[in-house]
Amino acid sequence: MMKACQIIEPGIIREIILGKQIMLNPPQGWITIRINASGICGTDLHIFLGEYLGDYPIIPGHEFSGDVVAIGDKVDRFQIGDRVAVEPNLSCGICDACLHNRQHFCENWQAIGVTKPGGMATDCVYY
To answer: What is the DSSP string of 31-61?
Structure first.
């Protein structure tokens, strides 16, 4: 079973347990990482305090590393057992900002540990 720290809403944290099957079957193009280390940074604190654009409930942690334990279909850049560190920012690749190599201004920006489940868990599904 996967354990995680989840911010339910600003100021409220709880431990959750998710089913193992979910983590070992990442969607097409994604991988599952077994977390070895996850940092805590100011952004995590701002999300906890409700001062940042994080989605709630959220598993925080956008600075982490670990080992690849599962790969989704059509993943060819990683193999099970690879050691990885994440780039948490996910850009769409199709908006005007992305097409002009300004992914940090992506109109459809997402981020692991901010708008998608992050690394303060035993496992994380990552793109």
So the answer is: EEEEEEEE---HHHHHHHHT-S---SSB---
